[in-house]
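Colleagues,

For the teaching module next term, I've prepared a clean inverse folding example: a structure given as tokens, and then the sequence designed for it. I'd like students to try predicting residues themselves before seeing the answer, so please don't circulate the second half yet.
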């Protein structure tokens, strides 16, 4: 149910992911070049000692992924 709603919304706004290689390449050609890359990986940080610092850096994870 949710995937149908998401697909309809993305399609209505013109953001539905391309499935064919040619379509994907044509979409990438239309995009403007960006100088910024986003690294989506999580990295461990040393836990801050003060209470405010702990709240700011809290990720919600209970255990590290092996």
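(Answer key — instructors only)
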């Amino acid at each position: 149910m949710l995937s149908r709603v998401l697909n309809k919304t993305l399609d209505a706004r013109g953001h539905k992911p391309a499935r064919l290689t040619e379509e994907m390449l044509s979409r990438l050609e239309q995009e403007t070049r960006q100088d910024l890359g986003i690294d989506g990986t999580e990295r461990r940080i040393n836990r801050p000692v003060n209470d405010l610092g702990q709240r700011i850096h809290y990720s919600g994870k209970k255990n590290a992924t092996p």
